[in-house]
Amino acid sequence: MQVTETLAEGLKRELKVVIPASELASRLDTYLEDLKGKVQIKGFRPGKVPAAHLKRLYGRQATAELLNEMITETTRSAVQERNEKPALQPEIDLADDDAEAILTGGADIAFTMSYDILPEFEIIDFKTISIERPVVEIDDSEIDEQIAQIANNNKPFETKDGAAEDGDRVLMSYLGKLDGEPFEGGADENGQLVIGSKQFIPGFEEQLVGLKAGDEKTIEVSFPEDYPAKHLAGKPVTFDIVVKEVQSAGEVTIDDEFAKGLGLDSLDKLKEIVRGQIESQYGAMTRQKIKRQLLDKLDEHYQFDLPERLVASEFDGVWRQVEADMQNAGKSFEDEGSSEEETRAEYRKIAERRVRLGLVLSEVGDQNEIKVSDEEVQRALYDRVRQFPGQEKEVFEFYKSNPTALASLQAPIYEEKVVDYILELATVTDKTVSKEELMAEDEEEGASS
């Protein structure tokens, strides 16, 4: 095997590789000799099939398989001997004309392999990083507010005589029509709606006021312009309503008996659970904020050349999502006050940031032997499966048989563990903030993922 470097520019590498035809021929002879004792061909005793006959029958297919194996082995070996780490699998350029000559044994195996290597950089002392952890102090009034909402959602309803009013619950059947024709998802034989809950299309609930059990009415409304179903967004529709029952809401006393009705021992236990839920919600937002701070600081510190193909791959994934979102929203770049060129440049920077931070976090994980256990991946897989009720078996089999998909579950776990490692070394100080400050969204949450 002869390897000649033809390009070494920045992170880009290109090698010309030549493998003598005799090596491929030797492997083919060995392959056919092994095949002779296994294959059964009519007219020949086992192990007595002439090599020339085997070559006529299986030679071309076997040569193609051996050629792929040799290219893969040689590519791996060439990179290892150079002590380089490719950012992605090297691209192989083997001309079609050359491939035909190689398969017929008339030429050496000559191909070009091109790849980007991973950049080298020093890991900083994470003790020099200072992070402010935003913390919200939970007031008892906030817990009481949440419990009041729970009580409101669990009000008892009783049948009433007379017309529906604000706060009443209406049990009904309805059939939605677009241009006089029923549309998918617009019908329900046992619908129910609390007037004033704002759960239906704007203008729908208000037209239920005054209706009584047995009343029929056709309601005219328009879907919002930003409605997710594009074929309905902004469109005027009608709903044929038949009122089955009108119910009025009863009063709820928030006490131990109310808590027991929810399956809890006492009101104090309910308050404890609600506090825990609020703490969990704020904790998730706090985690998001300090992770963003950390990634911002790492992004400020690290500036190095990036593997172009890795950035291109990341950008392609980001851009496909941008285009899909724009199409689903029925908007153009001009509607967003920009142009496609400006938007592409913006998301190119986001892709570069993600690649750069991904390389930094990966290097930190490698140097400190941070691993994701099989148990952690299994938990992530089961969590993912539970998101598809009724399709659990199919989803499970998909991930189990697809290494790339399974790796997509492992990657975020690995990233979080590396972030935890860095935060343990960094200087983290608490800062009390308001609920509004904590919940305010950054322009670009996340970074490397």
UniProtKB/TrEMBL annotation:
UniProt xrefs under InterPro entries: PPIase_dom_sf, PPIase_FKBP_dom, Trig_fac, Trigger_fac_C, Trigger_fac_C_sf, Trigger_fac_ribosome-bd_bac, Trigger_fac_ribosome-bd_sf, Trigger_fact/SurA_dom_sf
Name the UniProt record assigns to this protein: Trigger factor
Domain PPIase FKBP-type positions: 167-227
PANTHER family: TRIGGER FACTOR CHAPERONE AND PEPTIDYL-PROLYL CIS/TRANS ISOMERASE, TRIGGER FACTOR-LIKE PROTEIN TIG, CHLOROPLASTIC
Signal sequence annotation: none
Domain notes: Consists of 3 domains; the N-terminus binds the ribosome, the middle domain has PPIase activity, while the C-terminus has intrinsic chaperone activity on its own.
PROSITE patterns, per the entry: FKBP_PPIASE
Record keywords, A-Z: Cell cycle, Cell division, Chaperone, Cytoplasm, Isomerase, Rotamase
Gene that produces this protein: tig
Catalytic activity: [protein]-peptidylproline (omega=180) = [protein]-peptidylproline (omega=0)
Subcellular compartments: Cytoplasm
EC number: 5.2.1.8
